């Protein structure tokens, strides 16, 4: 029998609860050709933007992007403002603590006045962490979320950071979250702080035109999960009040602001993802996906995500432990990997099915916005309808069929549970309590999506 969870956070001992929420977001510039504005936007955050020599900028990207016109456009824009540009292009598709440390060493050595990131979530997250550790002393694990790290608060402001996404997925350009693979723990983890949020985002949808279909599918499903998880997260009013109020976390739970972006993003994904995957020349579809990614980023940057993302860190991080050989077309073939969007999506239908009983109308709303038929559906069926609607979309865009589709079996479930259970920042944002027993049931249900 498939799991349906029904105990809520209200089961806990009474505490003083939140009565307010905070809206945070980067300044966003969106539109074709906007990479040409990067130099002006960086310069505007430097002490003397009009001086002849504008300062030193650390440009983070990857080797593939460095050979594209998008890199040329960005570099030209920076140099037009007389900015000295130093380039780090060794970001991995899935960053590790080792690759991040190399980026940190580069940032410390170059003593940049500002940071620019051009790439997907891996590039933007690497730049965030390099900025953090070049600006403030300490080791990476000092700032990593507990219990895997010290959970140390970011002590102060960072250098200006203009983030330029080239994939329509992570939303990292507008969030204060940076994720990487902690090799010693065989799982993904990260750092979360409002101070990590980029100063500005420059979103040029032209950059998605050359993305392979599998990359569009994976990143689009990541957007979808960002949006549905934000919409169905525990309400902000169920969280213990922060003391002081300025210590309110970025993942504060579902709130009226995050709901707006989440709803619109879900609808856009349902309308355009299939088209964007099927036709690289469908400019309208790919532009709308890029906009959906930014909207969902703003949503989960203020509400937070929950169970599917917690499970994804184990799905992606433990592939090598089982000798997995999943190598999606369109991604580097040097080593097996589960791209982040697929890693989240393969468990999402099972997670939403299990959690829907505690917020049935929100799960039904998500299914309807995604294009599912919800007419006459009873609240008790909300999870099944959302799971089936999402699974249908996954099937159509070529996503793996559950965790079994990337190589896991029933025998791997206990290890996957061990990898996901420490992700308390995410799990505690779910609309009901989720611990090892619940994770075990969801992972078992996630072996197949259809």
Automatic annotation (TrEMBL):
Alcohol dehydrogenase iron-type/glycerol dehydrogenase GldA domain boundaries: 26-205
Catalytic activity annotation: 4-hydroxybutanoate + 2-oxoglutarate = (R)-2-hydroxyglutarate + succinate semialdehyde; (S)-3-hydroxybutanoate + 2-oxoglutarate = (R)-2-hydroxyglutarate + acetoacetate
Keyword hit for Flavoprotein: no
Domain Fe-containing alcohol dehydrogenase-like C-terminal: 251-446
Pfam family, one: ADH_Fe_C
PANTHER family attached to this UniProt entry: ALCOHOL DEHYDROGENASE, HYDROXYACID-OXOACID TRANSHYDROGENASE, MITOCHONDRIAL
Family to which the UniProt record says this protein belongs: Belongs to the iron-containing alcohol dehydrogenase family. Hydroxyacid-oxoacid transhydrogenase subfamily.
Protein name: hydroxyacid-oxoacid transhydrogenase
Organism of origin: Nocardioides panacihumi
């Amino acid at each position: 029998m498939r799991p349906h969870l029904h105990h809520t956070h209200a089961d806990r001992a009474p505490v003083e609860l939140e009565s307010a929420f905070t809206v945070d977001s980067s300044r966003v510039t969106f539109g074709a050709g906007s990479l040409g504005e990067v130099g002006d936007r960086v310069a505007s955050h430097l002490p003397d933007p009009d001086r002849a020599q504008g300062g030193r900028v650390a440009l983070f990207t990857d080797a593939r992007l460095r050979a594209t016109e998008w890199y040329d456009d960005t570099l030209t824009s920076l140099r037009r403002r007389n900015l000295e540009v130093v380039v780090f292009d060794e970001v991995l598709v899935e960053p590790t603590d080792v690759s991040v440390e190399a980026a940190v060493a580069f940032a410390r050595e170059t003593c940049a006045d500002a940071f620019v990131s051009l790439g997907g979530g891996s590039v933007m997250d690497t730049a965030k962490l390099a900025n953090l550790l070049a600006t403030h002393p300490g080791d990476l694990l000092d700032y990593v979320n507990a219990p895997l790290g010290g959970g140390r608060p970011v002590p102060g402001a960072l250098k200006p950071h203009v983030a330029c996404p080239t994939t329509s997925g992570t939303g990292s350009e507008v969030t204060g979250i940076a994720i990487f693979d902690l090799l010693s723990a065989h799982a993904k983890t990260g750092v979360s702080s409002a101070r990590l949020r980029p100063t500005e985002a420059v979103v040029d949808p032209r950059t998605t035109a050359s993305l392979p279909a599998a990359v569009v599918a994976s990143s689009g499903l990541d957007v979808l999960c960002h949006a549905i998880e934000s919409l169905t997260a525990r309400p902000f009013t169920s969280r213990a009040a922060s003391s002081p109020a300025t210590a309110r976390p970025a993942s504060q739970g579902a709130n009226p602001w995050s709901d707006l972006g989440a709803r619109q993003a879900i609808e856009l994904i349902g309308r355009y993802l299939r088209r964007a995957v099927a036709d690289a020349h469908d400019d309208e579809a790919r532009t709308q996906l890029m906009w959906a990614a930014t909207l969902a980023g703003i949503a989960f940057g203020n509400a937070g995500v929950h169970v599917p993302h917690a499970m994804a860190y184990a799905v992606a991080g433990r592939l090598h432990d089982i000798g997995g050989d999943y190598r999606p077309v369109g991604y580097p073939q040097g080593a097996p990997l589960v791209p982040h969007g697929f890693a989240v999506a393969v468990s999402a239908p099972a997670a939403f099915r299990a959690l829907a009983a505690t917020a049935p109308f929100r799960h039904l709303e998500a299914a309807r916005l995604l294009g599912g038929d919800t007419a006459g559906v009873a609240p008790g069926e909300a999870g099944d309808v959302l799971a089936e609607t999402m699974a249908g979309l996954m099937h159509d865009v070529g996503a793996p069929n559950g965790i079994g589709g990337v190589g896991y079996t029933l025998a791997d479930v206990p290890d996957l549970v061990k990898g996901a259970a420490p992700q308390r920042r995410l799990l505690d944002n779910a609309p009901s309590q989720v611990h090892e027993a619940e994770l075990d049931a969801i992972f078992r249900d996630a072996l197949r999506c259809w």
